[in-house]
User: Fold this.
Amino acid sequence: MVLRTLLWRPLIRRPWRLVVTVCGVAAGVAAVVATVAASRAAVRAFAEGVEEVAGAVRIEITRPGGVPVRWLEGLRPLASDAIVVPVVEEVALLVELGDGVRVLGTDLLIDAEVRPILEQADAGSRVVEALTGRSVFLSAALADRLGVTRGDTLTLSAQARAEPVNISAIVTAQGLAKVWERVVVMDVALAMELFGRGDRVDRIELAPRAGVDPDALRVRAIDLLPDDVTVAPPSRRRETAQHMVASLRFNLVALSAISILVGAVLVATTLATSVVQRRHTIALLRSLGASRFQVAGAVLSEAAVIGLVGGVLGVIGGLLGARAALVSVRYSVATLLRSSLATGIEAEPWLVVLGLGVAMVVSLVAAVLPLEEAIRTPPLQGLSDAAPRPLASRTIALHLVVLGAMTGGVAWLVQMPAWRGLPIAAMVAALAVMAMLLVVVGPLLDGLARVGARPFGRLNGPALRLAAAALSAGRRRAAWAAGAVSVAVALAVAIVTMVTSFRGTVERWTEEGMRADVWVRPLAMERGVPTGELDPAILELAVDMFGPQAVDPFYSIDIAYRDRPVSLAGAAFDVVAVHGSVAFPGRESSEVFAEAYAAGGAVVNEPFANRFGVREGDTLVLEPPGGPLEVPVVGVFSDYSRSHGLVVVDRSLFLERFPGRGPLDMALFLADDVDALAARDRLLAAARGRFLIEAFSNRELKREVLAAFERTFAITTALSIVAAVVAVIAVVTVLLTLVGERRRELATVRALGASRRQIGAMVVAEAGLLGLAASAAGVVAGLVVGVILVEVVNLQSFGWSLQLQLPWSDVARLIIWVAVACIAAGLAPAVAALRVDPATVLREER
Assistant:
């Protein structure tokens, strides 16, 4: 009877209340699920497909710049205990797809014993055909998507060259991991030719034969190889990739979790208002013998229903929203893993469980305070209507003590270092600042109610005084609505502060550091995601057209420094010593490069300097192939693209250690009398038919960088919008409840001569007071959180420093928007108040 009375009947009579609350929870859950799903899809093809592509391989032999194929001869003593396979693995643009695929070059004659995909009957019968021509194996899923079949031709962009390949077999990959759907398999010799590997492969794999201990095999392999190689299981590459993107994923998920906080406030608001709406019913049930346990069960059941339905809808919405979020997340991941590929969004079982679990936990935790109010509701004979009553001095003092303690905790947390490269303490501090809003909004509303209740002539008429009295009487419920709005405002202000600071910093960085007239790169994947290298022949073409002092190629390769992945790059120091390049705070760029060129030194980016405690004047000892490399650090430059760390040396030193490598991109510095757009068009015309490249003028390049910036932060901006929508729902819910509570009061005021206009103005004034209190608290908290994100989180996560810019104009517009939204939210409750019939209500109260 209790459940039917307190839960099912009200749900049937007022279904909108359940709907809006479920939508609020679903929005928060969807934000988390979309972020997690998109980030996993952006790295899955690389980080999580490693073991799947490796097959039976248990040991990989790798070396920065590649492994010489002559080492295969030295590994012959292992042939009886292991299958030895040379492998080239690269991400290439498949022109017909308009996106990237993973190219796997392997020894097709023996690889069928290692990777199950080559055991497919259709593939096995055509291995010889693949060995004698430019032929590849394609998955059936990819073939269906492209509409091709065996014998057709596809075009790969390899080193920015258009390379036609023939489809010799289509494999179904039945029973294999989904990652195989975007893998193109070819013979290792063809892969070496296409990607300019020379006499090197990317790795040599060892698949132990039956009964052979992999650890013992690894020890034997180490004894046969030079000291500068890595002999490790395939999982080592996955762990490295996951480590590189860990901070990015953590920050995205942490920001999306704040929207869950807004959803929790909405659940608490809804449950609290539903308890208030049914106080007389609860009191009557208590008088008839219902226990507190039964009443509590009804409240918790409602919370569970909200959590379950909201969780289901949130998971569905999150998986759909992840497709939109994938674009921005994938571009962010590509700055860390250039060889990353995005796979489709998958409804993984654990992700569904996560979404449902978060929704249920949030809903049940949010039910704690409403549960207390329901349990404390007395029997009918002890029930009386709430009257306006200000907070006691002791209560205000308690709030101040709690706020002081939380402020001290936040100050302590922001001083804590990152934990394993993750700004966990700083993010907890940001969430604590958000939680402080829930403590401060009650006293704020109390203060507004006190001010509004005082007569100030025409400044506050009867409508405002009645609104202030109503907020004082329903302060506890109103505080939850104000809390939801303030958290949403704080989230929006924090994100705007971070984005504004980042954008301003990046704009200054591009103006100071991007001085080239034209920038050239291989044709990019979808939405500008970079891939591959340029053919050295493109460099020769540019030198012939514009002269050697106009061309600055940029080479890069991943190495380890202090057992952590970093990038070692090469640039034309003699060229940038004349023209300048990246920005060195407080120093002229050209002077730094001239000094580095003369001293045979290096420049490092700020993330590298911060992560390893390196400063100008220090000496780095790097471990590239060929022995230790000692270089003095001549300068530290600003960089917002490689957060794992970047060391740049002169190209001659780079190519000495990594001969034959092609540049990732190329900058052109033209004479003052040369038109940059005309020069770009001449280069593209000369490359047409031979190379697949794209070139940007200086203005186009800066526009491309800012567009990439916008894609990167698109998902964080969407989070603030979700939170704002949820907050407006909370205001509507609470005001409708307060109107229902004051039916007799409204009827009495109407009977005493108040006009319909005055009644409507009173309710709208309540919404305005709520918005004023919430905006004031939210703006302050948002600015604090924004400073934490800019000054602490970004530095600990990515190693770069940003120039803090407080977005006062955006904050002012936000306050206006919130005020308008809250007033608009008050219109529906105002209409409900106008429908109160004085005669009917007063007759019922006799």
Summary: The chain is about 60% helix and 15% strand. Residues 698-741 form the longest helix (44 residues).
